[in-house]
Amino acid sequence: MDCLFCKIAAGEIPSKKVYEDDLVYAFYDIDPQAPTHFLVIPKQHIASAAAVNAENAAVVGHCFEVIAKVTKELGIESFRVVSNIGESAGQTVFHLHFHVLAGRDMTWPPG
Ligand code: 5GP
Ligand code: ZN
User: Fold this and answer.
1) Whose CA is nearest to atom 24 of ligand 1?
2) 77 alpha carbon to ligand 1 midpoint, in Å?
3) For 52-68, how does the pLDDT look when each residue is reduced to its tens digit (9 = 90+)?
4) Is 98 in the pocket of ligand 1 (CB under 6 A)?
5) CB 41 within 8 Å of CB 19
6) Is the pTM of this model over 0.85?
7) 27 in contact with ligand 1, CB cutoff 6 A
8) What is the pLDDT of residue 95?
9) Closest listed ligand to the CA of 7
């Protein structure tokens, strides 16, 4: 499949790694929107959070386990996790990813 994040997870396209295990890959966003901005993705291709189901939901839980662990290791206490689903919500890469943003005050509601 021609998917940018599948290629990044497989190491075929270089990225700045934050964390990796058998199921999950995390790397810094190429266009950071906060002083710390990295993405957590399942290695398996899931198109978005709207494609989560009983078969693949465990890896989503694992993504959040990784988010908790990595932010703790980086000393980040307050952060925002975002997943855009569909073009109107701002999704540009159609492989499930969780943005982790930190290091500045965040506004609510998001834009
Ligand atoms: P989305 O817009 O789908 O929510 O998020 C996609 C994110 O992937 C964007 O924040 C964008 O900056 C990031 N991105 C797109 N291409 C690359 C790339 O080649 N490398 C990295 N590290 N991030 C990318
Ligand atoms: Zn993919």
Assistant:
1) 30
2) 24
3) 999 999 999 999 999 99
4) no
5) no
6) yes
7) yes
8) 98
9) 2
